[in-house]
Amino acid sequence: MSVTVRQIDDKNVVIAVGAQFDYALHQAFRNAYAETKNPGTSFRVDLSKARHMDSSALGMILLLKEHADKIGGCVILQKPNEAVTKILNIANFNQFVTIES
Predict the structure, then answer these.
(1) pTM, 2 dp
(2) Looking at the 3D structure of the chain, how many domains does it have?
(3) Residue 71: what pLDDT?
(4) Which of 51, 68, 75, 80 has the fewest CB atoms below 10 angstroms from its CB?
């Protein structure tokens, strides 16, 4: 269970999650972005290591999207594997966040 944060610059933050993206990461995921309030910030969620994602992870992404919208930023989901991409597509996340392979 892990969440790591890397501040690229004033407008770019990368949040990487571990293999299990589920409720156990809720507080760490929220802490990863809560203090970032720079207008126009892009939050990139690195899903390259995520092998499993549950409904609470989808909710966490929605909360991040809400935060990004408040500061005029955006959310980009990066490198999801096939199983995670399927979950994101079923939930229609491609309609309101960018998903990069």
Answers:
(1) 0.95
(2) 1
(3) 97
(4) 51
Question: Residues 61, 43: contact at Cβ < 8 Å?
Answer: no
* Contact predicate 61/93, CB 8 Å: yes
Please report the DSSP string for 2-49 in residue order: -EEEEEEETTEEEEEE-SEESGGGHHHHHHHHHT---TT-EEEEE-TT
99 DSSP assignment: E
Structural domain of residue 45, as residue ranges?
3-100
Tell me which residue has tokens 């392979």.
101
CATH value at residue 46: 3.30.750.24
Q: What is d(CA 99, CA 101) in angstroms, rounded to the nearest whole number?
A: 7
Question: Which tokens sit at 100?
Answer: 């990069």
